[in-house]
Amino acid sequence: MKEDENFPLPPMDGYPNCKEKLKWMKDMWRTDPCYSHHGVNGSLPSFFIYLSEVESWCPVLPGRVVPTAAAENSEKKESFKGLYPSLANKGQLRWIHQRIQSMEEVWVEAGRSLSAKYNLTERTAKQILVHPGALTDESGTRIAEGAFSGGPLGEQVQWSDLIATLYILGHHVHLSASIPALKAFLQGKTNGCPSRHLKVEPNLIYTDIVGLRQIQEVIGSSWIKYKCIFRILDTFGTEPDFNHPDWVKKHHLHGPFGGLNMTLLQFYTMFPHTPDNTFLGFVVQHQLMSKESEQFKSTKRQNQALVYGKRATFWQGKEAYVDLIHKYLDVHGTADNTAAIPSYVKNHGIIKGHDVQTLLRQSKVFVGLGIPLEGPAPLEALANGCAFLNPKIQPPLSRLNSEIFKGKPTIREVTSQHPYAEAIGEPYVWMVDIHNETEVKRALTAILNQTIEPYLPYEFSCEGMLQRVNVLIEKQDLCSSTRSWPPFSALQVVKAEAGTSCKKACQRMGLICEPAFFPNLNKLMRNMKSFCEMSKYTGNLLPPSAVCFYNHH
């Protein structure tokens, strides 16, 4: 937009859309009475003041004071007393409310433990909007409703633990579980017009892909100003090929979840599938968390197995496999009343998490049936000292051959019911071909001839999740192009064999593949290549062990 000689435009650093919005306002300011309500009169200064003080598209003019909420330090919470009222009045979050209540004691203790190990002072309390779109009534998924009747719980487990983590860390958590609530928070309207300032300007927004689309509909193009502060819970992850709209269109990779054009690290996964996305995780619940933990420590193992399968479809075609297990162990289940299960199975029906923990504590084997994929239950079994039979999947499942992954923005191939548990390995996790009697017998014999101690990876403990999310909030800045994290000093270079992924190469060394280091490594390697070219003529050759690196494509 052409500058007014009496009103030179200030620097636009950090406001890339300001000039475009000014042009739009010049033509459209009469289309909505809200503009004149806020003093827009057709002049460039009035456009600028509106776009800087009401909608935040432009920088605030020098000399004008815009009141903002005073920054305050984030203090670790000692209870969920302040969180419960906002959970209690949202029916869509009822299951989440119950889970947080049942784990309050361990969350508080984990917060104390973490603060004793690390300095958690001098952190600014963030204003954080949490909007689980798939749980809203408007989404039509009925996930929230199905939580009490055998429906999938993985997403709700993750939302529950994220909300608890943010609150215990001392941040201001604003919960939205409906479109009206979302509008009230983001639009901040008074008499149908945007208020001078939002009641709360969010520093971070946690949502899912359904929720992101809801937010885009609610605030239109204004969502762009929040783009870099979105954190999108995405169970299976989003790979690069499925993120960029032009690439998706060119290669016919369309689906209901791809083409969002976000920074890949904004997708938060349930398990560490890929270094392209961010691992958020969840907390594995187990009986030693309970107030009655002493009672459960003394619980005796029975000669029994618990089958992992709530739905009838999970059991279909697995009769011979379950029959074989029954030759070694009494078989228990927690299936709904639609499942046609063998008569010898003692079925407890759909029961509360506390009762599932009791069954796991009493059992020696947790029996995977191949589905559901990548849920929290196998890790709960391990944490309760119960070995997991993890069915192999051949050929591997992917979006090319599976309805489960059809339309998902990933080409990852799943080789077992639980790939993360697969990496844990024996004696906790036993890979079996459920159609191979010899393999199943070998696994059962080995399990019954040893004592399996409870096993819980730190990253899936309350303290581990508190630590991880705290670091992400404090260090993961996707709005700045200059801030770098992790620090380059943390780099450890690993040489990988041809065809081995960065993830696998680092995993073998007990490390984590970190794409943030790739630009630095590439620069070093370009310099190294130049040095090596010079060495041909100078005779200054590098020793063979001097360079250890991994090429990332």
TrEMBL record:
The protein's annotated pathway: Protein modification; protein glycosylation
Any GO BP: protein N-linked glycosylation
Membrane topology, from the record: Single-pass type II membrane protein
Highest taxon in the source lineage: Eukaryota
Cellular-component GO terms for this entry: Golgi membrane
Coiled-coil positions: none
E.C. number: 2.4.1.155
Catalytic reactions of this protein: N(4)-{beta-D-GlcNAc-(1->2)-[beta-D-GlcNAc-(1->4)]-alpha-D-Man-(1->3)-[beta-D-GlcNAc-(1->2)-alpha-D-Man-(1->6)]-beta-D-Man-(1->4)-beta-D-GlcNAc-(1->4)-beta-D-GlcNAc}-L-asparaginyl-[protein] + UDP-N-acetyl-alpha-D-glucosamine = N(4)-{beta-D-GlcNAc-(1->2)-[beta-D-GlcNAc-(1->4)]-alpha-D-Man-(1->3)-[beta-D-GlcNAc-(1->2)-[beta-D-GlcNAc-(1->6)]-alpha-D-Man-(1->6)]-beta-D-Man-(1->4)-beta-D-GlcNAc-(1->4)-beta-D-GlcNAc}-L-asparaginyl-[protein] + UDP + H(+)
First-listed, main subcellular location of the protein, grouped into a coarse class: Golgi
Presence of keyword Transferase: yes
Entry's Gene Ontology molecular function annotations: alpha-1,6-mannosylglycoprotein 6-beta-N-acetylglucosaminyltransferase activity
Protein name: alpha-1,6-mannosyl-glycoprotein 6-beta-N-acetylglucosaminyltransferase
